Amino acid sequence: MSIYDYKVKGKQGEEISLKEYEGKVLLIVNTATGCGFTPQFEGLQDLYEKYQSQGFEILDFPCNQFGNQAPGTDEEITDFCNSRYGITFPQFAKIDVNGEQEEPLFTYLKSRKKGIMGNNIKWNFTKFLVDRKGNVVERFAPTKTPESLDAAVAKLL
Measured between alpha carbons, how far is 30 from 142 in angstroms, rounded to an integer? Predict the structure, then answer.
């Protein structure tokens, strides 16, 4: 399978094929609105604005698995991100990234790039960088700021 074979749920519950993002560089992130890393939304938005016109997309998947740090509905999460950080990159429905109910896309991503906890995601704001051909080229820990990813993104563009 390829990353483009996966379908995910949009904020309105609609099915979205990742084939829509074929040929683009992707940064796929599990996020939370009440996390110590939540201010990274600002850096993510800056990165998006800098590179979106060159074929870069950030795919944001809210996740409430770590310390109940993404409570609320998909709509409430979107409202928070828009009003606080002016987010314009795609946000999807809330998901699990580990365990029995984990989103199949994240099972795939984790199988391609393991982290310090093996396949499991350690915390919110784990980031996966995908090249234009759909290859998962890098996995970044939550502590890696969006600003520190600039060169890696630019290289793939």
Answer: 9
Q: Is 65 exposed, middle or buried (0-12, 13-18, 19+ CB in 10 A)?
A: buried
> Token digits for 49?
């604005």
Note the pTM of the prediction, 2 decimals: 0.94
Task: Kindly report, residue by residue over 91-113, the tens digit of the pLDDT.
Answer: 999 999 999 999 999 999 999 87
Distance CA 141, CA 122 (A): 8
Q: Measured between alpha carbons, how far is 32 from 123 in angstroms, rounded to an integer?
A: 10
Contact 129, 25 (CB under 8 A): yes
The residues assigned a catalytic role are 35
